[in-house]
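Re: [help] complex structure
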Amino acid sequence: MLRRIARAYSTCGKVFPQEPVKPQLISSSVPGPLSVEANNQLGTIFDNRAAYFVTDYENSLGNYISDVDGNLLLDVYCQISSIALGYNNPSLKKTAQSKEMIDSLINRPALACFPSKNYAQILNEGILAAAPPGMSKVWTALSGSCANETAYKAAFMYQAAKERGLLDFNHEELESVMQNKFPGSSKKVILSFENGFHGRLFGSLSTTRSKPIHKLDIPAFNWPMAPFPKLKYPLNEFTQENLQEEDRCLQEFERIIKNDWEPHQIAAIIVEPVQSEGGDNHASAHFFQGLRDITLKHDILMIVDEVQTGVGASGKFWAHEHWNLTNPPDMVTFSKKFQAAGFYFSDENLQPNQPFRQFNTWCGDPSKAIIARTIYNEITQNDLVNKTAQVGNYLFPKLAKLSESYGSFFNLRGENFGTFIAWDFKHADDRNKFLFKMRQQGVNIGGCGDVSVRLRPTLLFEESHADLLVDTIEAVLKY
Amino acid sequence: MLRRIARAYSTCGKVFPQEPVKPQLISSSVPGPLSVEANNQLGTIFDNRAAYFVTDYENSLGNYISDVDGNLLLDVYCQISSIALGYNNPSLKKTAQSKEMIDSLINRPALACFPSKNYAQILNEGILAAAPPGMSKVWTALSGSCANETAYKAAFMYQAAKERGLLDFNHEELESVMQNKFPGSSKKVILSFENGFHGRLFGSLSTTRSKPIHKLDIPAFNWPMAPFPKLKYPLNEFTQENLQEEDRCLQEFERIIKNDWEPHQIAAIIVEPVQSEGGDNHASAHFFQGLRDITLKHDILMIVDEVQTGVGASGKFWAHEHWNLTNPPDMVTFSKKFQAAGFYFSDENLQPNQPFRQFNTWCGDPSKAIIARTIYNEITQNDLVNKTAQVGNYLFPKLAKLSESYGSFFNLRGENFGTFIAWDFKHADDRNKFLFKMRQQGVNIGGCGDVSVRLRPTLLFEESHADLLVDTIEAVLKY
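Output below.
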C-alpha cells in the first residue's frame, strides 16, 4: 500500500497508474503451458527456438511484460534493451493513433526519391534534437546492423574520395568493380574489437567478434581485430592494473595500424561504449580518449556503436558522453531504445560526393522516426536520463552489497552508469540457471557474453522496481 | 464524364471514388518552387540529392501522387515498385487504425525471443497464405537487402551442415571464425548474374552487378558472376537467336560451376525473374528451367529474388510462376509490394540446425506483417492479379503500336507479364529527357538500367489509366 502511494508521485506512477506493484504468476512455471503450445504452433512456420515465452503485449504494462498464460513479469530485459518508455505507453499510443502515423504507414515512401513533406521536421524535432556535438546530419536505415553497414559505406567512400581528390572514377575502377575486384572494389577495412558486437549482416558480422555461433559458416571479410581491455573489479581495487591493461590494448591497437596494414587501409574503427552482447565489458574514458587520439593521428574514422548503449540508459543520453572526448567521434550509430529502425549521425563531410551512393529503396521509415520523436520528447520532458542515473546510483550499492554477501555473483560493473549494470557468474550453467530461476520468481532478465547477466530496464524503472529486483535476486541466490 | 461513369464500376473507382480522372498541374514545372524549397531544407540534414520532388502523401490518392506544390501526377513508378493498393487506400487505413497495429507499433517485440501471441496468425493469414508450392516456412527481415542476406546465411549454413553431417563444430572452426578465417568463416560463395540487383548491404552488394555507382569504393566478396541472356525484341522475330543466347548463358553458367570453383563451393545462386534495376531484362522459362536443372545437378541452392517482381504486378502473384518449374526454387525473397519489411520463404530444411544462428534483435516487424496481410487480402478479394494481367494485355499492344510509330522507343518487353513492362531509348540522355518531360505532363515514371523506362503502377491501375499513360507518352514523343 505504501509502495502504491509512493508510486503515485513518481513519473512511472503518473504514466502507468495501473502498473502492477509486483509480479503476478499464474502458471506453475514460466513458460507456462499456453506459451509452450503457442510457441509450438509458431514453430511450424517460423524459427522461434530462441523464444523465452509467447508474449501478450496487449496485457503488458509499464515495466511489466505479460505472457499468454497471464503471468506478469517485471521486465529488466525489455526486448533486448529496447522499450524505453515501458509497454503500452500512453504517449506512444497517442502517436500511433495520429493522422501523421497513419499516413506514414499506409503510404510508405521511398524517402530519398520522394521524401515526405514532414520528414525534415520529424528528423529535426525527434532525432537531430538528440544529436551529440559536431553531428549535423542523420542517415536513416532500418536496423542496428544496417545503420552500422551504411556508416561503414560512408567511411569507405569518404576515405576513397580523400585519396582520389578531384579526379573522377577511372576506367579501371569502373570495370573492376563490376567483377568485385580492386581497385573498384576497395581493399580498405574496418577494425573492430575483440568481443564486440555490431550486427549480423555480412559487413557488420565481419566486425562482430562476440561468439562463434553468431559467425560460423558465414563468409567474412579479412578485417582486423584489436584487443579490448579486460578490466578487474571492483575498479577501485585494481586502478593500476586496469590502467596498464588499457594502455596495453592501446599500444597493440596502434601496433596493428602501423605494422599489419598499409597506411590509410583502415578506413574506420567501430567500438561500443560497453560491449554488450560480448559480456557488458566496460573501459574507461582514458581508453576511449586514447582510441580517439590514435585514430586522429592516423587519419582513421571513429564510429561509436550506440545501438545498445544509446538513448539514456547509461545515465547520459549517449554513453560516449561519459568520455568527455576532446574531439567528437566521426559517426554515432543507434537503434534499439528508439524502438525501431537504425540511424547514424555524422557531420556533413561524411556525405558521399555524389547522390545514389548512400541510397536504397526505403532509406528509413517515417513511421519509425515518428515513434523515435515521441520517445525523445518523453525522455526530455520527464528528465528520464537524469532519473535513470539516479535510479542506477540507488541500485548499484544494493547490488554491490549482495555481491559481497553472495560470492557466486561478482565483477559487478556499471557504477555511475545509470541502470546499465551487469555482473558475472563463474560458469555459464550457473548464469543460465539464475536467469531461469529469476523468471520463475517473476523477473524477466537477460544474459550476455558467456557468464554475464545484464540489466536493461526501461527509462521508467524506478526505486520501487529496483527494490523488487534486488529482493528477487537475493531470494534466488539464497535458494 | 464517360470516363468517370466507367470508373464507378471499376475496382479502383469503388476503392477511390474521388481519384482524379487526370493529372492536375499547378506549378509551371515539376518539381515546383515549393518542392525545391522544401528539398533544400531537408538537404541540410539528410542526403536527398536523389529526390524527384517533395511529396504530399496526405493529398495523394489511388494512382495519383501529389507534391507539395499541389500537382497531382499519375504515378507509374510508385515508390520504386511498391504501393500495391494505391495511395491512402481505405482498407490499409482501417488496418493502420486497428488496435492490433497500435499495439505492434508501441511495443515493438524482439520477435525471436518474445514472439507476440498473434504473430503465427498474422504470418499464416497474410504471408504464408501467399507462399508458392513447397514453401512452408517464412523468415521475417526488414528490407529486400536483408531478406536476401538472411537467405544467403541460410544457404551457407545449410550447405555447411550437409558437409559436416552429424558432427559438431570442431575446435579449429570455433577458433578461426573469431579471426574471420577459414574454416570457421566459409569460403563458399553466392553466384549472381550480370546486371542483377540484390541490394546494397555488403553481402547483397557483392551479388549486385547493376551499375558501378552502386558498388564503387565498397569492399566486396570475390563471388562469381554468370552472364544473363540479352534477348532481342520483338521476341517473335528472334526466336532462334534468343534460344541460342539463353543456351550460351546456361552453358557458361555450368562451365563456371565446373571449372572455376571447387565442387560445393557455390552454396547458392540468386536470380531475379526480371532484372529490374539492371534494365528490366527478361529471360524465358527455358532459361530459368535450365538454371533449376543445373543447380539441382550440382547441389546448389536456387534463390529467386522477387523483391521487385513479386506480389502481382507480373500478372501472376509470383513472377517465377511464369516458368512452370518442374522443381520449385529453394528460397524466394520479397519485399516491396508488401510495402515494407523483407521476407523469405523456404522449406523446413533451410532452417539452421541450431537456434540463435538465424537471429537478430527484431527478426522482422509485426506492424509490417500486418500491412502485408491486408495487402494480400485486398489482392485476393479483388482478384487484382488477374486484373493486372488483363490491364497489361490491354496496354502492351498500344505501346507496341507507339513503338512502331516512333522509332526512338524500342525493345518493348513484358508481353503477357502484367503491367511489368519496359522499353529502351537509344541513349541515356534521351531516356532521361523522356522521364523529365513525362513529369511535366503529369506522369511520374521511372527509369532503370542505362537507357530503359520501366512501368511499375499499382495493382489498381486500370484501362482508363493505361489510356492516359499511352496518350501522354505519345504527346511527349511527338513533342
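Residues 239-260 of chain A form the longest helix (22 residues).
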